[in-house]
Specification:
Helix content is 26%, strand content 23%. It is an alpha/beta fold.
Length: 309
């Protein structure tokens, strides 16, 4: 499978970072969102207060311990010079957005993007995502993981066949296994303005594909669109925090994915007896109808309505 690419357009600033110090207190009674992304500034107070564990799972031996797997404090650490770049500041943004969208949950961060010594992104091979998702499945009870968000995606991985454009790989099985365990995996539709296809892995049937909605309530023209595959629509824009505790703004279906996953955790917490299928049906049945100028339609996740539904 071709490498994953970040599905994000954001405003970036000059950034600094501090070594990660994971908060490993026993908080298993609190629901946890597992966030799979690039790297993380764990010194940021908002993130530090909610971070229950860090893991690094790569195809390259570029975790902080010099191996392709690391678990525990500092697993998501990168030097400030690398973490400050657009290649790696994405994970910090995503964690801050998810935490702000639902302050009543923990986060568990899994680093899935490796780096070269010069700070470039390493290619993501076919095993990284399945391995990371399998680790989440194995540790779901230990950390009370109820959902997974992966704000990464690739359009170049799609098949040219417009009817069956979603490739099949080991990632399908990993997502299916989590789905069977009642844990949804949220992915971004992508920001390529594709009016007929969404990115991989969002296109995988048991993925929860998330599209973006502009602040004025229309489906964003930046968001990829497939009326049959996008499951949830949420805002495409959000204030966020960059490494160094610098406040900025983020734009893209990466943002939408974090908001959708965090709000799902809130809904699951409020309605713990409902199954995954029942919760997704509730989200759709209580969703707000939305559209845009080119007559694309969808249902925007309305957490308040779903909580009362």
């Amino acid at each position: 499978m071709k490498k994953l690419i970040t599905a994000l357009v954001a405003i970036t600033l000059t950034i600094t970072s501090m070594p990660a110090q994971a908060n490993l207190k026993n908080k298993t009674s609190v629901p946890t969102l597992a966030i799979l992304d690039s790297a993380l500034d764990t010194s940021i107070p908002l993130i530090k207060s909610k971070l229950i564990q860090e893991v690094c799972i790569l195809d390259w031996p570029s975790c902080p311990n010099g191996k392709n797997f690391m678990e525990g404090a500092s697993s998501s650490y990168l030097s400030s010079l690398i973490l400050s770049t657009s290649n790696f500041n994405h994970g910090t943004q995503m964690a801050s957005i998810a935490t702000a969208a639902n302050p009543n949950m923990n986060i568990l961060f899994v680093r899935i993007i490796g780096n070269t010594s010069k700070g470039a992104r390493q290619t993501t091979g076919p095993n990284t995502l399945p391995n990371a998702l399998s680790w989440v499945l194995s540790n779901k009870d230990k950390y009370n993981i109820v959902a997974v968000s992966v704000s990464q995606g690739s359009q170049s991985a799609l098949r040219k066949n417009t009817q069956q454009y979603c490739p099949v790989s080991a990632t399908d099985n990993a997502i299916n296994n989590l789905y069977s365990a009642g844990i949804p995996v949220f992915f971004p539709a992508g920001n390529d303005r594709d009016r007929a296809r969404i990115n991989w892995p969002a296109c995988i049937p048991n993925s929860v594909a998330v599209g973006g909605v502009e602040s004025y309530g229309d489906i964003s023209i930046f968001s990829n669109y497939d009326k049959n595959l996008i499951d949830i629509w949420t805002p495409i824009y959000s204030p966020s925090i960059y490494p160094g505790n610098i406040y900025g703004n983020s734009f893209g279906t990466s943002v939408s994915t974090q908001i959708a996953a965090a709000q799902y955790v809130a809904l699951k917490t409020a309605k713990p007896n409902l199954t995954l299928d029942q919760l997704l049906l509730l989200i759709k049945s209580t969703g707000k109808p939305i559209s845009n100028s080119i007559k694309e339609t969808g249902l925007m996740f309305n957490l308040g309505a779903a909580l009362n539904g």
